[in-house]
Automatic annotation (TrEMBL), chain A:
Residues 323-353 are annotated as: Disordered. This is Spermidine/putrescine import ATP-binding protein PotA. PROSITE patterns: ABC_TRANSPORTER_1, ABC_TRANSPORTER_2. Belongs to the ABC transporter superfamily. Spermidine/putrescine importer (TC 3.A.1.11.1) family. It comes from Lichenifustis flavocetrariae.
TrEMBL record, chain C:
Pfam families: BPD_transp_1. This is ABC transporter permease. CDD domains: TM_PBP2. Its main location: membrane. One of its GO terms (biological process) is transmembrane transport. It comes from Lichenifustis flavocetrariae. Residues 56-248 form the ABC transmembrane type-1 domain. The lineage of its organism: Bacteria, Pseudomonadati, Pseudomonadota, Alphaproteobacteria, Hyphomicrobiales.
Amino acid sequence: MTFLVLDGLQKIYGTHQVVQRFDLSVERGEFISFLGSSGCGKTTTLRMVAGFETPTVGTIRVDGRDVTQLAPNQRKVGMVFQSYALFPNMTVAQNVAFGLKVAGKSPAEIKTRVGEMLELIKLPKLADRYPYQMSGGQQQRVALARAIATKPQILLLDEPLSALDAKIRVSLRDDIRTLQRELGITTIYVTHDQEEALSMSDRIVVMSEGRMEQVGTPFEIYNRPATRFVASFVGHLNLLKATVVAPSEGRITVNGQAIRTAAALNGVPVGAPLTLALRPEAIRIGASETGNRLDGTISDVAFLGAIVRIRVQVGDNRLSLDTFNNPGSPPPARGEAVHLGFSPEDLHSVSDA
Amino acid sequence: MEQPLEALALPTAQPSRPLRRLPTMPLAWLGVVPFFVFALMFLLLPTLFLIAGAFQDPDGHFTLQNLRDLLAPNIISAYWISIEISAASALGGAFFGALLAAAVVLNGLPGWLRPTLMTFSGVASNFAGLPLAFAFLATLGRMGLVTVLLSSLLGFNLYRTGFNILSFWGLTITYLYFQIPLMVLILTPALDGLKKEWREASQTLGATPWQYWRMIAFPVLWPSLLGTTLLLFANSFGAVATAYGLTGSTLNIVTILLYAQIRGDVLHNQNLGYALALGMIVITGLSNVAYIVLRTRSERWLK
Amino acid sequence: MKRARLGPWIAVILGAIYFLVPLIATFEFSLRVRRNQYSFDAYANVLGDPHFQASFLYSTLIAFATIVVGVMLVVPTAYWVQLRLPKLRPVIEFITLLPLVVPAIVIVFGYLRIYNSSSWLPLTGSPASTNVLLVFGYVTLALPYLYRSVDTGLRTIDVRTLTEAAESLGARWPRILFTIIFPNVRVAIIGGAFLTFAIVIGEFTFAALLDRPAFGPYLQLVGANRAYEPAALSIIAFAITWACMGLIQIFGRDRRTGVAARP
């Protein structure tokens, strides 16, 4: 059931179009990530949902009600900021209680709810601490508790983990997701970190220069990138320059070596150039009987521990592939000639847009 | 951080080794000797001399009589008027300064206003003393432009309302000319310390702008506001030249009284003059101690 | 939240009126020497007055002496405390802030008692030694601003590493101070220096009570005896203060980065 609808949102500052035609329907309880690099419009879109920015064009509907012109304090959204933004003059308990107090809840009710919230974020003993007495990770947990204490309709998270250490980032990521599932709260999560987006989201919106590039599940975004931008932004991807030989049979050449795609390349003329995407983990060393085969020379070997990343030069295409470390045999050496094998199903043509 | 003992040990442990490194501990203290000699001679001793003198009679015996003599009506009233003027100009400076700083920092006024106000405040906060007194005489004195314009254009005689530039209100309005800018200069960084996210967080939690100010912004600013007000108080309490330039010796405030005492022993008791000075130090000292304490608290919050 | 509301505009406009009207009025007043006609006679009178020239020159020299003595006292001390005696820092900071607690008139009162002509160190005995006392007094007044400015400047550079690097290249400490430390806190020194100049040039209490022919007492004398010239002097003093602050802004910009130094 559709809960939040962003209908044709645009935001223009002067002549600069920060967000171009943003359309999205979010189900109740869904976890959506806006993924993109800084300046792509993801935060502006989030702030339009929060009510800090008014869309130049378009409407925002929550549960069927148009909220486009509502002030932030009437929207019933909870927001978590990158900088935590805890009120420095209040203790943890007072911070969490703030929204309830403003809403005029009774002291008894506030006390119970604050206690619940602190249990939920596993910090029940820090109720009387001030923000400056806590670590970043603890502060962000409190900020999360403060945001959900008032039972908001939508939870908005603006790069909440970007200011934290790598380890805390991973554990807090899991906590946020667990909490979100338990409470079933509709959530929009803005991040530039693809790993965060892929691991947490029900669906991801990849954005670039104010445009929506692709909307899909993490699996779709990663394995079936719709545009070249998505392909290069999400995960590591090899891009092969190929020439079409027989479109209907999916036959093509890469530096004169013939390979094929699983899907027919309908509509592409013979002899046309084509860009193909291939994930590093889809390539094996050593040719298979049925699949595609490309011959090349190893140009670089990076030993990363569990994974060995090998770069292979095939004409003017350079491919990366990952193999697992094998304690029994050392990795191949530079300059070695190798055969690369991969299945036609793993080759995707990407548009240049 | 070098430990004193380690540093001490080095030259004795290896006496034959030439001292190539920077001078070590006993010599390190030599580096600050000029400063301490200077501070002692030109700041501490003169002050201590007066403080000690306040507790002595002319023959050098200990007495509390000088402090008791401070309770004479004309001295008490001098202190009282000084405190009133300082308090009025500090509160007024704090209020209007905060208003100006808030107007420029927090709201969407044109960008050039802020650097203009800051530069002007730097100038005006240093534009004190006699030139300031002259400026206000030329503005609000009997022949001043504003006085003349009010009476010729509106038929309003400012001086018939009891106003006088040589009075309490005249002095307070004049002091505000450097007090307001001082408040702007000190408060602006504190206002910048109010994070935009606090306002936004409070809004998403349902708070009105008024609730944001009452529950977050004002409590956070409060120590800076109060502390700066106390600093402004001390600032105008010790001012001599502006008052002297405006009023000559006609206004009975404590700095003018002390000035007259130094020039001609108008109190006929040197040690009573010391006690007068001691009283000033105690009052400005208390307000500065309060300032430092409150300042530390506010910085802890804004950390 | 970008739209400007009425309130801030009212505050700014009222502020502008309060701060600009006295300047306009003073300027207008300074032009009133001749009947029915504005003229710059007051300025001509003032600038042509030999007492003005003498007292202004005197105060300028005293200000320069104050800046030199102040810098020579404050920079090595601040440097040394950061490098060698960090534990002493709170003490030094407290002392440098004392002039904000003890009013100038009290300090000079003490001078007159300790250094009078019959004391152990009769600094007020001769004009030359009184000039020295005046300079030291002004250094005291400037101490809070000068020390803070230099100390902040030193904190932004890594004093210890710079010193050790210079030492490893064989430099001795006077050389380190003059070729490494001074240039690196140039901005802070210049800022403090102009502020000192602005404070000293029209200072009244010290100069009057030590009975020196400075600009401050001259202002007082003119104020007591002339009608329009004080207004002209006021405008001149305002222009000087403005120039000092302007120069702080100009020199305060770090040449390397183009970013204004923090006060």
